[in-house]
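Thread: "does anyone have the structure for this chain?"

Original post by V.I.:
We have the sequence but no experimental structure in hand. Need at least a predicted one for the grant figures.
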Amino acid sequence: MDKADLDVFETARPSLLGLAYRILGSRADAEDAVQDCFLKWSAADRNTIAKPAAWLSTICTRRCLDVLRGPNRARVDYVGPWLPEPIQMAVAAPDADGDLAASLTTAFLLMLERLTPKERAAYLLHEIFDQPYEEIADALEMTEPACRQLVARAKTHIDQRKVRQVTPAPVQDRLLSAFQSAISSGDASQLSTLLSADIRLTADGGGKVSAAARVLQGHEVMLFLKHAHRWWEGYTWNITHMSGGRGAILSKDGQPMLTLSFDCDETGRIDEIFIMRNPDKLAHLDPVAIH
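Reply from O.Q.:
Generated one for you, tokens below.
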């Protein structure tokens, strides 16, 4: 492969990685899909490829759909609630505009889980990556009208507020700092002012560490958080860019122990708390990175 062809792929790599991560919800799986694209690009007769970016996107999409259909993606045996793997800014950086950032949040990726694999791919390609239906139809090996129907169905399951609106970073930082202060002090009254009445908490331990075995709601969340200061005592908090927004990595002796991120309602109160405890999904994080 000559340098020009390699440059074409490297230019496309951030977008391919972003697409694969959004479809799969796993950094490792996304990197594998992009590597598979690279191998196919290396072996292809590139002189016959009129639109390299579209060709690479098609290959990446098809690979991701294969992974979703594969037995390794079945979550029937997953212990407790599942959350997408948190990512730091190194992966999210190419997605500078608001819509792309919003589509990296945990809340948005969980909404995508409600869709069929083809609905998920069609929605992302059209609504997030602005690809024309002609290219989407080629990627999904469907007709353009069928792809339009896929996107229309996906939209009925997607909360557009969560796609188009991200709480400003300074507000997220203030909430995270106030939440840290409330947890550290064990002051329930401080927490109650931060949380929506419909608060939900989802913790992913993957069956490898202790975590809430189901999604907690309302007063259950308050009861959980009242004890968190004991469980998280001695942890170092680092507020950082994470999954399209701001989050906290809590570490001990330089090792990430959990991540914490929020989603907010229209009033600015926290209505979703996401806690990642699964060590397999924390291994790649840098707990001392300053962002």
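V.I.: this helps a lot. The mean pLDDT is 87.
O.Q.: and The two ends are 37 Å apart (CA to CA).
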